[in-house]
Design a protein that fits this description.
The protein has one domain (4-81). Helix content is 30%, strand content 15%. The protein has helices at 16-23, 30-37, 51-55, 66-76, and strands at residues 8-9, 12-13, 28-29, 41-44, 47-50, 62-63. The strands form 3 sheets. It has a two-stranded antiparallel ribbon with strand order 1-2. The chain has a two-stranded antiparallel sheet with strand order 3-6. Strands 4-5 form a two-stranded antiparallel ribbon.
Length: 105
Amino acid sequence: MSSEDDTREQGVEFGPLMDDLEAEAYPQEKAQLLETYGDREVDLQDGAETLNDILGPLGGKTYESAEDVIQDVIGNVSTEAIGRDNYTDRGGGPPGEEQSDEESL
């Protein structure tokens, strides 16, 4: 079984679903995967989404591995997974936005 650190990928917490996906036999059609796991949720920064919500709109697809499923989930979750919009820890802000001379500690 995976620890919580092992089940979080790029802002998406898969929890026990990650173990279940990794235990599946591949290749697997998206329709079959959603029939089995479609109502399962992944946790995001500010909420949760089901696999049906995330993968359903993608059309017919065959997944070759759990990693393929995980990458599709990461690539198609709503902006809820990314946290604050336009946040950077590299200083500065979005282009065209005035910068303050004050430094935050």
